[in-house]
Amino acid sequence: MITSLTISDFRNHKTCRILTHGRKNVIITGPNGAGKTAILEAVSMLGGEKGMRGATMTDIANFNGPGGFSIFATLSDDTDISVFFNNGDTNRRTKIDGESSTLSKLAEHLRIVWLTPKEDRIFVDGASERRSFFDRLTANFDSNHGGRVARLSKLLSERAFALKNSPDNNWINALDQQIAGISVAIASARIQYAGEINYFLENAAISVSGYIEDMLIHGENAATSERKYLDYLAQNRQLIGDKMILDGPNKSDFGVFNKSLNLPVNLTSTGQQKSVLLDIILAHAKLIRTKTGYKPLILLDEAAAHLDKNARYKLFSELGKAEAQVWATGLEQEVFKDVPDAVFVSCFDGTINNILVAEQ
Predict the structure, then answer these.
(1) Residue 174 domain boundaries
(2) Could you read off the pLDDT of 280-312 as tens digits, one per residue?
(3) Boundary (domain end) residue, out of 197, 222, 254
(4) Which residues pair with 83 in a beta bridge?
(5) Residue 344's closest CA among 334, 359, 327, 324?
(6) Within this chain, do residues 74 and 7 fall inside the same structural domain, yes or no?
């Protein structure tokens, strides 16, 4: 849990300090463009990841500042953590209790999950958006999962290049061996995550399907699935219109079913889809708490968007029961008046020299 947050030269904030007073819910309200999302983005980087917007470091740094930025937080156990970027550096740096550390070590102090308006359409957009969303959640429990997904994408690009340029069979064979092994590991992690989060979901159910996932779900062991996928790769080495058409974890999809309405979520209303998304994030937080012992941070950008009064009441009730600290943004403070154990931060438009102090 964060007790204080200080950011400097971050997006439109020259300086910004928030005191949470130990509250479970931190509600940041203000007009569009005031920098509410920027605060959540800064918090998201304290978990060691690139941030919930995935922006480059130079884009994040305040354009009127020195070309870098800093994020400093004190946690409820009095640990101090910071992430900073200096002009001229190629990467972010971090300190824990004043000592230089690695970004991966931050996950030992904070587990962070977020939901932004970009995810509001994942049930109706293409499978790639759903894969990206659920792969990010899966990576909270399998530290190698994100790296495997990125490595698979790189290997597939190398394979397409090799096939297009008079391939050496030895080269293709070596690539296929790597692709098959990584693909089975990715599929296994996805299946495990779907099974575990379903335990904490009352009104929804998550499934995953794909070439390898289906084999594993229907009883094939990892070794057999890897061998069968390797055979598939060997039989599919042709290009169609200079493109490689290949099934596998790069084509897998996640399905979400609304048990209350007895419908796939993509067939429900925008508000019902948002409610299920929030249910998934809260269930994910419970899974983090159960598996790791950590109380996670949940970041909800435009938390109440698309929710009617009853849905907001349900959300706020769940926030009160969650073993997590929640940072949420919205336009109007009045909308969040029923959030329990909350501290409110007013974010004002137009000034870069904006010091924000949470009021009790």
Answers:
(1) 127-254
(2) 999 999 999 999 888 899 999 988 887 888 888
(3) 254
(4) 71, 94
(5) 359
(6) yes
